[in-house]
Amino acid sequence: MPKSRIRKKADFTPPPAKQASNIKLTNRSWVAPVMLTLFLIGLAWIVVFYVTDGELPVTSLGNWNIVVGFGFIAGGFGVSTQWK
Question: Which of 1, 2, 52, 76 has the CB geometry, 3.0–4.6 Å to 56, for a possible disulfide?
Fold first, then answer.
């Protein structure tokens, strides 16, 4: 029986090395402090409204003070989308 020919496998050549591209990162160090500040202002606004039975922070707003507090909290969530 004839012998089969042995095929020589090609030597492994690694793919060319990728050159690192410059990634421009913007400085977002302001995001966390602003976000936390807005959260705390909103929370404090609502707590002060409830503790003072609606006399503070702004008497003329009445129950809309709750909306203002949640507005600050929503602003904190809006700022948090900028965090990387």
Answer: 52
